[in-house]
Write a structure and sequence with these properties.
Elements lengths: L1 E4 L5 H6 L3 E4 L8 H18 L3 E5 L1 H13 L4 E5 L11 H15 L4 E4 L2 H9 L8 E3 L17 H4 L9 E5 L8 H12 L6 E5 L5 H10 L6 E5 L4 H6 L3 E4 L8 H8 L3 E5 L4 H4 L6 E4 L4 H12 L2 H18 L2 H20 L1
Parallel strand pairs: 1-2, 3-4, 4-5, 5-6, 7-8, 7-10, 8-9, 10-11, 11-12
Helix pairs in contact: 2-3, 7-12
């Protein structure tokens, strides 16, 4: 296997696992010159590697990667649509453009894989893909990588948070889709009743300065901890009383599975693939997106009923164990690859 990507901080770690990594810088935003250079580089790499299958991910890399694979004569192409790409559109025109481009790119793939049934419904409703090409393969995690900590509060304590303080937390990039601004507004609603409440925001992104300013303007800067990127993210997650994900849209939310692996009750938006992961009232509470009042009420409810929160955490762990196992996801992907290559072998 060869990983072709914009090599970031994880490249060396991946190479250490024995995977070859080829760096092809792909601009995140529209950049005609940079995009054409990336396309040409991808075509060159694929012609050199002559892979049996190219499997692409994300909207822009997926568009360029699928086109490059076809131009290079790759036999089989698979694309993972982690979430419908038009969700990120900021206007009706850009939404239309995303939909048209995705419909075009769908012709260059033999199969389109999406991680949730909620995504599948939206993709088909928008007629982005020929239904015969589309399939759901849920993502999964390896539970053995998430051992229960002997001292769950250790990493959180390192932030200066007292052991008896209620702690809610979110893990994700500091960008609009994750809904951090609505979480801060919810914390503002809560601190009058729970002045010792702590909200830990793990992750980094271009909104960090703006969100820190928002917290200060709301008078909750002492209640909110922006940690930036942390290698010990899982250790911090262990110390949360609740895991919160107020996303505006979400393909599936692998971090939800990680929180459930640590038996954390979930409070999240009722959007996208989150609805496939979290069972409302059983493993967590789902609520409308962009609604700080609803978010605050759900958080307050579970912080005030630890027995219910713990029961939800246990139910979440069992759900990951039975429905979202890494080996099941890998087996289905390998079966897809073999099925796609079988006609060529005949």
């Amino acid at each position: 296997m060869v990983l072709v990507c914009t090599a970031g901080p994880f490249a060396e770690r991946i190479r250490a696992e024995g995977v070859e990594v080829i760096d092809v810088p792909i601009p995140r935003r529209i950049d005609p010159s940079g995009d054409l250079h990336a396309l040409a580089r991808l075509v060159t790499v694929f012609r050199h590697l002559q892979p049996d299958i190219v499997h692409t991910h994300t909207s822009k890399a997926g568009f360029l990667g699928r086109l490059a694979a076809r131009l290079a004569g790759v036999r089989r192409v698979v694309h993972s649509m982690h979430e419908p790409p038009h969700n990120a559109a900021r206007s009706a025109l850009s939404r239309f453009a995303y939909i048209m481009l995705e419909r075009l790119a769908a012709f260059w793939a033999d199969r389109i894989v999406t991680p949730s049934y909620a995504n599948e419904r939206e993709i088909l409703e928008r007629r982005l893909v020929d239904p015969r090409k589309l399939m759901v393969i849920r993502l999964g995690i390896e539970l053995s990588r998430y051992p229960q900590a002997k001292d769950p509060r250790a990493a959180v304590r390192g932030l200066g948070i007292a052991d008896d303080a209620p702690v809610i937390g979110i893990v994700g990039r500091l960008e609009p889709p994750k809904g951090h601004t609505h979480l801060l507004a919810a914390v503002r609603h809560l601190v009058d009743r729970r002045p010792d409440l702590c909200c830990v925001c793990v992750g980094d992104g271009f909104l960090r300065e703006r969100l820190e300013a928002e917290a200060e303007a709301l008078g909750i800067e002492r209640n909110v901890f922006f940690t930036g990127y942390r290698e010990d993210m899982l250790e911090l997650l262990c110390g949360f009383d609740l895991f919160v994900l107020p996303s505006l849209w979400e393909g599936l939310g692998i971090v939800l599975l990680e929180a459930m692996a640590y038996q954390k009750a979930i409070v999240a938006s009722r959007v996208g693939g989150i609805q496939d992961v979290v069972i409302d009232g059983e493993t967590g509470i789902l609520l409308p997106p962009a609604s700080p009042v609803h978010l605050a009420r759900a958080i307050d409810l579970l912080l005030g009923d630890r027995g219910r929160a713990e029961a939800m955490g246990r139910a979440g762990y069992l759900r990951v164990l039975t429905e979202f196992r890494d080996d099941r996801c890998n087996d289905r992907l390998m079966a897809l690859y073999h099925a796609l290559l079988a006609p060529d072998r005949r």
